[in-house]
Amino acid sequence: MKRIVLALLLPLALCAAPPASKPPAKTAKPGKAITVPAGATQVKTGLWKHTDKDGQTWYYRESPFGVVKVAEKDMTFKPSAESTTAAAYIKATEDGDNVKFERPSPFGIVRWSKKKAELNNAEAAAWKRAQEETAKAAQGQEN
Question: Count of H helices and E strands in the chain?
């Protein structure tokens, strides 16, 4: 019986003990928030480009944590080549009123089909490239 009472009272005694002293919490010093300059030009939604007085070009991008400032030389994202890069990996073939597409992915080849009137920018660019390649091949066989 004494063991049962001791087993019940020991956790209560530990809970009632004063907390260990904690070191004071470090507080971060607030820095100056980055904002998009007044003369910046909007490249696309959430992305601005600005050249400072020293001649260096900066990109300003909205993120969930605020505005991020990145030098142009450090940019891995190239805004102008965005749609053509996506189309470069898409293979397009005609199938009557539809166009069949194939694109490699980490999980294998992705295949889909769309009507010619419903193509998005990347699909239209891939379809145009496929038509040009077919025309070049036809000219090569004629010569």
Answer: 3, 7
